[in-house]
Amino acid sequence: MPIQTFLLTLGKIKTIMSTIIGRKAELKELDRLYRSDKPEFVAVYGRRRVGKTFLIKQAFKDRITFQHTGVSPVDQEGERNRMKTQLESFYFSLLNQGLEGVRMPKTWMEAFFLLEQLLTQLDNGSRQVIFLDELPWLDTPRSGFLPAFENFWNGWCSGRDNIMLIVCGSATSWILGNLTHSKGGLYGRLTDEIKLSPFTLTECEEYFRHEQIELSRYDIAQTYMVFGGIPYYLSYFRKGLSFERNVDKILFGRGPRLRDEFNRLFSAIFSNADDCKKVIRLLATRNSGFSREEIAKATGLPLGGGLTNTLASLAESDFIQKYTPYGVTGRQERYKLIDNFCLFWLKYVEQHGKDSTFMSDNQASDILKSWHGVAFEQLCWQHVTQIKRALEIGGVKTSLSAWCLKGNDEHTGVQVDMLIFRNDNVVNLCEMKFTGMPYEINKEENIKLKERIEALKATLSPKQTVHLTMVTTYGIKQGKYSGIVQSQVVLDDLFG
Predict the structure, then answer these.
(1) Full domain range(s) for residue 319
(2) Environment class of residue 142 by beta-carbon count within 10 Å: exposed (0-12), middle (13-18) or buried (19+)?
(3) Residues 55 and 164 in one domain
(4) Is there a single domain that holds both residue 269 and residue 211?
(5) 130 in a domain, yes or no?
């Protein structure tokens, strides 16, 4: 690359990095790949609405040679026409971007041959960026898409040093199965992959500041508890409105902005959307999660490869998480819902969706109390890095778990939502409390906390120490029983 071109490109990248919220590491990596002197094949994937398309378009803007987006299955009529619809849309993209005098392709082999012709016509020796968005949507049943795509990369792109092929997809299981872990013609062909994660609290704050939307950190945390760090959802917030009024307009009343979002989320990604929703609905009922056997029994889904694949697909797309509770032996993993939006939707939107002032009317009521507790715990799990940094153990090797001990005649039941096991023989027993003021530990709470500490100690080796860690919005109110707390993390720390 000539030095003048390099400096111009570098200047553009710096400008872009200053305007895009977060994503600094991803932009740096995309810039490195763009400036390489060999063919690059990059997969960008992550939860739907997380900002994959926006990232690529902002990173490259006028430097994209050819781009195409697959047609969502939600917007198609019947499976019979899906291949024809995708081919027709691809054909129009070819025409719109410069190809002339060709008929609509009848197969994907022919379609990619036409793309090769267009790229040859446009080739001036500089980097050619090909961006195929929502690639899994193109792979309709019995369409022959994948062999044609393999031939396109292996037979044509890989022999051209100026080609950069970027593919995106919300169907993470498709990306991983057909590209990352491919056992076919694309085995080992990816030169890089980027998983795009939701915003952190800090990045949400940065986004609202950039949009000049005034929200307190308390309300930004609540926003996160409803929508997660999903940029698409945040984009619906409007300045001049409170957190409550924004949520009401986005999710409640007549014609909310995200009227069909829950159904579209799954229909657009999964071929077995109904099975996925059954699992999600079940997991929303218990914060600690369910075992595979419990899921199969409750949903009626057969315990076997089908359920295994469904759970894996949901986990890969960041809707659920598999973990092993502390003290459980053998293959007793639990699956828990980790998608904030789905949790709030199932708990409140489905039941109260027609109430246009639901959030505004109930913010101070008991209706939202249970959700505040569960959602804040979820937020804390999503910000463990910040919690560790606040505890000054960022460099200590740790593992996370939750713990549930059933009660019997000898002891009461114990429920601990987060345990941090540390290599320095300390275990942080974390209690999370979301309140509008400093949290006060009363006599009854003090007794419960002591019981949990002693129950945990009984399961540990003598050399291990238990530290009660309170993760709260505004800290612990000093009082008669506050001394039981060994360490604190407050909301500001989670923005760290």
Answers:
(1) 263-342
(2) exposed
(3) yes
(4) no
(5) yes
Same domain, 235 and 304: no
Residues 252 and 283 in one domain: no
Residue 85 lies in a domain: yes
DSSP 132-176: EETHHHH--TTS-HHHHHHHHHHHTGGG-TTEEEEEEES-HHHHI
Q: How confident is the model at residue 78 (pLDDT cuts 50, 70, 90)?
A: low
The answer to whether 303 touches 293, Cβ cutoff 8 Å, is: yes
Average pLDDT, the chain: 92
Instruction: Report how far residue 464's alpha carbon sits from residue 136's, in angstroms, rounded to the nearest whole number.
Output: 49
**Mind listing the pLDDT tens digit for each residue in 31-57?**
999 999 999 999 999 999 999 999 999
Could you tell me whether strands 128-133 and 320-323 are parallel, antiparallel, or unpaired per DSSP bridges? unpaired
Give the pLDDT band (50/70/90) at residue 205. very high
pTM of the entire predicted model: 0.91
| 205 & 191 share domain | no
Cβ atoms of 153 and 188 within 8 Å: the answer is no
With cut-offs at 50, 70 and 90, classify the pLDDT of residue 10: very low
Please give the share of the chain, as a percent, with pLDDT higher than 90.
85
358 part of a folded domain: yes
Closest by Cα among 71, 72, 70, 118 to 94: 118
**How many C-beta atoms lie closer than 10 Å to residue 90's C-beta?**
22
